[in-house]
Amino acid sequence: MSTRTADRLVRDLESICGERNVFWREEDTLVFEYDAGFDRRPPLAVAVPKNTDEIARCVRAARDAGVAVVPRGAGTGLSGGTIACGDAVVISTARLRTIHEIDAVSRVAVVDPGVPNLEVSAAARPHGLFFAPDPASQRVSTIGGNIGTNAGGPHALRYGSMVDHVLAVEMVLPDGEVAVFGGVAPDLPGYDCVPLIVGSEGTLGIVTKAWLRLLPLPEDVRTFLAEFPDVRSGARAASAIIARGIVPAAMEMLDRTTIRAVNAAFDVHLSEDAGSMLLVEVEGLREETGSATSAIVALCEDEGARGVRVAETQAERELLWKARKLGYPALARIKPNSYIHDAVVPRSKLPDVLDSVNAIADRYGYTVANMFHIGDGNLHPLLLFDLREDTIEGVMEASAEILKVAIESGGALSGEHGIGLEKNHFMFWVYGPEDLEAMQRARSAFDPDGAMNPGKIFPGGDTCAAIPTERIKRGLAEGMWI
Amino acid sequence: MSFAPLTFDVEPARGCIHCGVCLESCPTYLLTGLETESPRGRIHLMQQVAAGRVAPTDTLRTHLDRCLACRACEAVCPSGVGYGALIENARAAFEEAHVVPRSRLAGLLRRMLLALVADPARLEGAAGILALYERTGLRHLLRATGLRSRMPKALRRMEALYPPLTRPRYRAPARPAHATARVALLLGCVMRVAYGDVHTAAARVLSRLGVEVVDVPDQICCGALHAHAGERHDATRLAKRNIEAFERAKVDAIVVDAAGCGAHLKGYGHLLAGDPQWAARAETFTSKVRDVTEYLASREGNERLGKLALRVTYQSPCHLAHAQRITQEPRALLRRVEGLELIEMAEAEVCCGSAGSYNLQQPELADELRDRKVDAILATGAEAVVSANPGCMLQVRSGLEERGRDIPVLHLVEVLDRAMS
Prior knowledge:
Radius of gyration of chain B: 21 Å
Shape of chain A: globular
Strand content of chain B: 5-15%
Radius of gyration of chain A: 22 Å
Distance between the termini of chain B: 67 Å
Strand order of the largest sheet of chain B: 2-1-3-4
CATH class of the domain at 99-216 in chain A: Alpha Beta
Number of strands of chain B: 8
Oligomer: heterodimer
Number of strands of chain A: 18
Helix content of chain B: 40-55%
Structural class of chain A: alpha+beta
Largest interface: A-B, 38 and 32 residues
CATH class of the domain at 302-420 in chain B: Alpha Beta
Strand order of the largest sheet of chain A: 15-12-14-13-17-18-16
Shape of chain B: globular
């Protein structure tokens, strides 16, 4: 694209948002080249509009200049969903941070897309309500981003992920029009577009307001940690719990490497000679939680649990969850770089898949850490490495093998992080050309020119060819065609 | 590209995996929501400028200058990134390379201030002149006549924030009859001339608890301001002088009642680690440094610390909470005062905007943070604000004054001193 077009676009964006809310200098756009994953590329410019109208005008300005648009929240995504492929303008929701309403009777929160996830629950708490999706990044990650990736979190086991909690969205469409989809009343007539938009990773438009479902706070919460000699016995206990028909609010597995890392980072003092741990939380009426807890503890002991630590206070409960939710960055204390996966596998295949993952990591010589939502089979194996000694090519190759194992077991590419730029080429592994074509047509109904967040979700295309990690993945995806 | 890359040590940033956990702890990110004003963004910029990928421009420097160095990000970072060390390395490199010239006046003022605090005699002289301004009633006159409001904004700000100079000077208490420990008190630079009575209160509290406070006459400014400003040479010189002075005192602990100074003294070991003649001595020195709240809380016994009917809220200084990770001790001490009610404010651990001389260099953001802090304080309905660092005390006081609220801002040791007397 010509410098003149770019300059004119920047001037247009400045006239919409104000000069200080548009970034185009190299040293400014540089900090928008990353998310929490591995793909890197600075955008052409970044606009930080203050409301829906300004967002719509920015989208129109970009469209008139023939420039693609990439929506961005806090940039804590793990799959490159907010990385600009080619010449694109990032539209940030940083200034849309208002909670408009907490309707305690209808149990609905009306919020801006830039509101951090946890703030919704904080605002709902005085009304005896909470917002269920709880991604590990929830203190920072925004509702807009959570909608884009259909984020989950540990409590998705009981409550489901974002798609189960978004009632309606206001969205700026790729042509700059503003539309509202869904509503707070049940059983709306016509197509229900909300489930299509949730998880669309910014490829259909920019969500500018969301109506979220709130739930009543449970009467009782019990959190405990069961310690096992190895991963296999912990996994067996998890299966036994589910098989018994008990659905905990959350059930997480931590392996030995993870335990070591969280001990180094936080004052949790987990037992370092444990082979694995299950962090379990049950919620509900006091009668329910009591009996569920005894049943779960008994099942854990049957499978060889060596001890159960119960969180006695709210502070201890929060500490255990902090250790779990910040376990991913804590692993950087073991090796400075890590690659986190998000595959989902059938629960019955979990122990075998874990064995295969460990074997792959061993073969490539990487340390592997496992810390994941075992209750719903959402694996997060992390390959730990050091880019000063290891190459990113090797890591990605091992990662592709891990994905392949998960898919061969009947699993899926992603549980909650999204496909983004990271796994787009691997879509061929789970969908046939006709499936993908049908999806593309649905997308085109919203965005016929493909100007909204191009290069994400769908494989192929040269849009992102300039990103080095993208080239590596493309080669791997083709080489490992199933 | 035609620029000389800045070389500095970015090793403290190695564990940064861009997870973004630090974002919500950062005061400037809280205000702006912008990656450019976030710890993660700044770390990335520092890494890229050190790698020579981007030029050390004015814009880039501004993003780093807007950092308060409050180290809240470092305290929450699960990966263990050494943000404080990193930003100091970067600032020193910018300073040494003179890549971005400041306006001559700003540069001159900065140099004068740094030279002033490091020289006790000149600091006394300057304090005397300023004290005269207060004592003669000139300050009051300027305010009463409205002349102050016609002063240039920058001058007005400095006028509102310069330390109080009419408070009594430090007076060492009598030696306790049966001393169980022997400590020295860091008197510092600005604290010495502006908050002598806080030192007196600290020493009296210590002495009442059977701790002898010995005089260390040759001690000097800790050098924190110099280190934060990137003047590493001066910082090192001051550190060595203090190590020598306190070694001669042969004490069990070096007690500090200014959180900023305490954090810096605890970093002497790191500052001099590369100097074989000084490394071990610096380590020994560092191992003896205790914040006064840390020292008091660590003493055996859990007896009541006097009686004072007062409803207070505690403002957690960054250099205590984040740099020294001391958050529970001050609160525990306050709870040991009979009749004292402690009400927690919202965002107690978010910087008040003082941050050394930040409030003079980044007035807009500093004012926003100050207002946010004042709102949080007023929402508690407290009768007094308790802090543990002079810079925070000044900033909070000026914020409360600006709102016309006459709520006293006390150092924690002043509260204990009153309660115990």
